[in-house]
Amino acid sequence: MGLASFITRLGKHRRLWATAKNLQRSLREITIDGGRPGRKTKAALNGTWFGHPLHPVMTDIAVGGYTAAWFLDILAELTDNDRLRTSADDAIAVGLLGSAVSAITGIADWSDTQDDARTIGLIHAATNITGTSIYLASYLNRHTNRSARFWLSMLGTVVLTGGAYLGGWMIYRQGVGVDTAPINALGRAPSRFRGSRPDNPRPLSEERH
After folding, report:
1. Can you state the percent helix, strand and coil of the chain, rounding each to 5?
2. Dist. CA 12–CA 186, nearest whole Å
3. How far apart are CA 41 and CA 31, in angstroms?
4. Which residues are CB-contacts of 123 (< 8 A; sequence separation ≥ 6)?
């Protein structure tokens, strides 16, 4: 069984499917069903004010920080350079900050997913939380255990790579967050990003006329 088949089967797993649905229902009680403040907060986290989905921007910050830390940690071990280790510490701090914000925006986007995408989204979140926790452990061991800080950084990168793959799967295989509004006859793209709604997890846009 190939990787694609495995992920497809995960998306249809009954227990995971039911768990994701129940969690999403509880989340929607706070946001969509929580009145105007809840809906406005969700819209802001979706990125309607930004004119672009906010979650991908935040994930780039996290991935950039962790990737830099991974590279710097390897160089530091090869050269025994404390300045590189300090730079890796700073890069992890950036990654952790990006992870915190991307988690919040990701939850807002996930609340509108449906069916298999909802299940894969839950696994995506769990994987990223695990990877971020490993990097947090690496960060906390930066000045006490050189071996642990390095190997936790390497492990965190592996786990977060898996989470990133699932995020890409949701976008490119399942269309989550993809604007499907048709381009008009003049060949111009939709003019304004409007977030998403529960009955259509893909963002809504208004076309230029």
Report:
1. 70, 5, 25
2. 41
3. 8
4. 10, 16, 166
Q: What is the pLDDT of residue 76?
A: 92
Q: Tell me how far apart the alpha carbons of residues 102 and 99 are, in angstroms, rounded to a whole number.
A: 5
Amino acid in position 102: S
139, 17 Cβ separation under 8 angstroms: no
pLDDT reported for residue 63: 92
To which H or E segment does residue 180 belong?
none
Q: Which of 130, 202, 117 is nearest to 163 (CA)?
A: 130
The first and second tokens of residue 154, run together, are 């390497």
Q: Phi-psi bin for 63: left (phi > 0), alpha (psi -120 to 50), beta?
A: alpha
> How much is the pLDDT for 19?
93
Q: Which residues, listed in sequence order, are joined to residue 200 by a DSSP beta bridge?
A: 197
Rg of the Cα atoms in the chain: 19
10-residue mean pLDDT profile of the chain (209 residues): values are 87 91 86 74 82 86 94 93 93 95 90 89 95 94 86 94 92 74 49 50 41
State the Cα–Cα distance between residues 105 and 98, nearest whole angstrom. Answer: 11
